[in-house]
Amino acid sequence: xxxxxxxxxxxxxxxxxxxxxxxDLGRIRDNVAVDPEFAFVDxxxxxxxxxxxxxxxxxxxxxxxEDLLFAALAQKPLTPEHRRLLEELDREHADARETTAxxxxxxxxxxxxxxxxxxxxxxxxTRLTEFYPQHIAKEDQEFFFPCLxxxxxxxxxALLERMYEFDRQLIxxxxxxxxxxxxxxxxxxx
Length: 190
Known about the structure:
By secondary structure, this protein is mostly helical. It is built from five helices and no strands. It has one domain (4-182): nmb1532 protein domain like (Four Helix Bundle (Hemerythrin (Met), subunit A)), CATH 1.20.120. Helix 2 packs antiparallel against helix 5 and helix 3 (80-111) runs antiparallel to helix 4 (117-148). The longest helix has 33 residues, at 153-185.
């Protein structure tokens, strides 16, 4: 299996979550059209989507891309077009992180019934549901396969093994952080 195999698989799961987010966005917009004052935002779904985006899409998927694939490619003599795409994809990851953080703040503001929070939720969900399909298509169609040519078969195998090791460590990082967070709060309401 090539090192892009896991990345392509992850893209399919991200697309499924983004589809669910788009459905929720449509539901919220429909509610706003009926009665903007009582439009319902499901904070649990927003929290689940944010957890997915932060943990799976960003930390797991973008983490492998940035820390492993992009870092390895940075050491290669890329064509100007591939170098431009690499830098563009890296900037897009940062933009997705910022939009996700804005979504969290907007959800919290909405729960406090602050003015403008609903509009910000709609903007963030729109941005994320438009961004990910375009970003994934760019990686799938323009970047991943051509970039494999920069690696020898041995380098590809080593990169794939580092990706699998990255995945094995990720769950431990997530739940070590969770336990540490609970310990710092000084309570245990599990």
